[in-house]
Design a protein that fits this description.
This protein is mainly α. Helices cover 76% and strands 0% of the residues. It starts with a helix and ends in a 12-residue tail after the last helix.
């Protein structure tokens, strides 16, 4: 998954979280219909991206969320339960955004310790293959 796809997925998760937070307040009925459609499509997209990242547990979670939110066969619950579901989904989405950002940052940041470890691995592999590392020129 490239950086553009990661960025779009993060923006989608943030947008869904905002939509679900607003859904926990008193809104017109049309808004809740919009939430069902946007949530259904958004959760399927998010589930697919998690599946691509080999995170099958989260993929199944987002698919279950899509099934609960789906606009075709509505799940009928009291308003209080929907508020809890909306807030819980928003929190899980925001936590997911945070972990995605941290993983992306950690994957692109090399500390001096990790650079030293990478050099050691490189030297070990070169030795194993019988390749001599280049000699440093004499410094005078």
């Amino acid at each position: 998954m490239n950086n553009l796809q990661k960025g779009i997925t993060i923006l989608l998760k943030i947008a869904l979280a905002i939509i679900f937070l607003f859904a926990s307040t008193k809104m017109p009925y049309k808004y809740y219909e919009f939430v069902r459609i946007a949530g259904f499509v958004g959760f399927i997209i998010v589930a697919f991206t998690e599946y691509q990242k080999s995170n099958k547990t989260l993929a199944v979670f987002w698919l279950l969320a899509a099934i609960i939110i789906n606009p075709l066969k509505k799940v009928v619950l009291h308003k209080e339960y929907w508020v809890v579901i909306d807030v819980a989904l928003a929190v899980v989405l925001l936590v997911s955004v945070f972990t995605d950002v941290v993983r992306t940052y950690n994957a692109t940041t090399m500390t001096p310790k990790s650079i030293k470890a990478a050099k050691a691995v490189k030297l070990a592999l070169m030795e194993k293959r019988g390749i001599k590392p280049a000699e440093k020129p004499n410094q005078k």
